Amino acid sequence: MPDFAIERRCDGVVCGIDEAGRGPLAGPVVAAAVIIDRRRFQGELRRVLDDSKALSRMLREYCYEGLRAGVRSGIIGVGIGAASVTEIDRINVLRANLLAMRRAVAALEAWTGRRPDLALVDGNVAPALPCAVRTIVKGDSLSLSIAAASVVAKVTRDRVMHALARRYPGYGWDANAGYPTAAHVEAIRRLGVTPHHRRSFAPIREALSPPADLLALLEAGPLAFLENSAPAATRTD
Questions:
Q1: Backbone angles phi, psi at 127, to 5 degrees
Q2: Could you state, in order of their start, the residue ranges of all structural domains in the chain?
Q3: Which H or E run contains 155?
Q4: What is the pLDDT of residues 33-60, one digit of tens each?
Q5: What percentage of the chain's residues is helix, strand, coil (to nearest 5)?
Q6: The model's pTM
Q7: 5-176: in CATH 3.30.420.10
Q8: How does residue 96 score in pLDDT terms, banded at 50, 70 and 90?
């Protein structure tokens, strides 16, 4: 279970940073930056808060609501940042992830008026931030600050995908959050690609690519294409 052991060895104001949504075929990446007043962070939430992936959906929602209560009481400061599908496709998902982290820290400073002295970032790639950065592999299972950020990022992104699911029914985003489940991939085949699908991801590129036989006809020239694509009733051969 995560604790504050890492934070206690750090000087100044420490924030934890984590993201959600690097792997899905659809939707944004979302990052959160969280500062926790360790002296006042007590009770059941401190005992159950963990890496969002280790929590059930119900317990994750419980932790999220507890963190929101902590924001209202001034125990916790939160900033949320995102990078859009357009940005993911333009600069790749890793760079978009780092961009979302930078935006989360900027939002944290804007909302709380506090710039962290040190950011503890889950993973092994450091975003460019206006403070010192320390990357920690599996940090969401070690640091309570990062665990809190993982829960905020995951629940926030899930809610975004729930909202999109109502606008684009049939893809199951309320259940799969845009990840490449069999049902989601089948829905792409049946229903096509939406504006919220990541066109730089291989399954979406393949869904948008013409079949090989059509490419061969196009390369053979317009006459061959027209002759082979005409309805049977109009064929003259």
A1: -75, 155
A2: 5-176
A3: helix 144-167
A4: 999 999 999 999 999 999 999 999 999 9
A5: 50, 15, 30
A6: 0.88
A7: yes
A8: very high
